[in-house]
Amino acid sequence: MYIHTKFNFNKTLLQEYRKEFIASDFTASWQYAHSHCNQYFDGLAIVLDQQDNDRLQEAITVGSNPSPQHWIGGSKVNSTWYWNTNEGDLVDFIWFNWGHGQPDAETCIRVWISFKWYTSSCNTLNYFVCQRYMY
C-alpha cells in the first residue's frame, strides 16, 4: 500500500485492509518509537476515526503495560499536523480527538487522559502503539 505525500487520505483505501494495534511494553522517545514500529510493524498507530480510536483504547487497555500515555503516529510539520506513515509519507488528518486545550506548542502526539490526544516533547519517554495491516 502506498500513500502519496501530503495527499488527503482516502479512507476507503484503508478499509480494504484490516488493521490491528499493538501496544509496546517499553518506553521510548517518539522518534525511536516511530523507527521501532516501522522496522517491526507497519508504523506508529494512525487513528482515522472513532472506530480506530476505540480499537486503540482496547490495545492499550489489554496491553502488557496499560499506562495512560502512549505515542501515536501524528506529528506537527511546519505548523500542520500529519500522520507519519512507515513509507515516510505525510498524511493529512481527517479526524481529531484532541484533549482540552490541545494542540499546544509541542510537536508529537500521545494518547493520555480519557484516550484523548495531547501534544508532548518528542524526547519524552512514553509507551507507544504500533499498527499492523492484515492483507
TrEMBL record:
CDD domains: CLECT (cd00037). Residues 29-131 form the C-type lectin domain. Gene3D superfamilies: Mannose-Binding Protein A, subunit A. It holds the Pfam family Lectin_C. SMART domains: CLECT (SM00034). This is C-type lectin domain-containing protein.
